[in-house]
Specification:
This protein has helices at residues 12-20, 26-36, 39-68, 75-96, 101-125, 131-141, 143-149, 152-174, 182-205, 214-237, 244-267, 271-293, 301-339. By secondary structure, it is mainly α.
Amino acid sequence: MTEIPLDKKANIRIIRKLRQDGLLSEVAFDAARSLLRPTSVWLAWARRMLLFFGSALVLAGVVFFFAYNWTEMGRFLKFVLIEVGIVACIIAASLRGFLRLSGKVLLLSASVLVGVLLAVYGQIYQTGADAFELFIGWAVLIFGWVLVSEFAALWMVWIILLNTGAILYWEQVGHPSHSIPYGLFCLAIASFNSIALALYEVGTYSGLKWLSGRWFRSILLAGILVALSIPTLHVIWDLGGIERATLFAACGWGVAAVCGYACYRFKLHDMIPIALIVSNVCLILLVLIAKGLFRDTRGNGAGLFLLFSLIVLAVVSGAVFLLRNTAAKMAKGKKKVIDE
């Protein structure tokens, strides 16, 4: 049995289309919009945002409290305050329930306070440990909470901790000893974030509601592109003095850009990752053009800068045109699927 348009479930896009076509009056449109998005939805959104911002401000206040009163506070008082805060957050999260948003935020707060505890411990006892050990240890200690939380924000904090720990390890150990080429390190960071992104897509496809936020996908993709863009820019500026690992990482950037665009354009249909990829390609392209233009600026530097500004406008305009055209085609494709 073929579904007719009136049998479809109403959504805000259909209502707006009817309003644009003149089939709904302004009064009818406002009434329909209030039914599709009632006030309770906006109140729930406002409560969630206030909960997030309030928790972030409280945690920032805790950090600044220790920083400001560090010299006046005794060793015992420092540890007691932080540990009491961690225990209080865990007990409150257990009472509220780990599946409720308030419980998840309390668990996130406890995880952040663990990092504060490690930092205070290192300052008091002057352990001499490298900075990367703090972040890696922090990630290890909160891993159990991350597993049971079903909270995308806490998973993102954990991934950021591992990325930060890996970067600091390379700066403090790998780079000084020349044991890890930075091209290989960038590939490792990009590979880790790619695995996290692949697991996110699998989880989303499996119907995990706590992974429904698209911001998670965008941050992971940005991490992949940034990690691979650095060796790519190095290849552009110093093609003759690069290592094989750096060249391989630059090739990885091309593969990631092409595969990412194809995936989110034709399979997953998400414009935000496409915009990130196109913006990153524009950056690499402009650096490549600048390398060719400003190789020798003797006598005509002002003219070259003017020409480059025009090229920037042309590249950005082309990117905007491509994104608008892609968005229109994707919307048309979704409409065709709905009509069928």
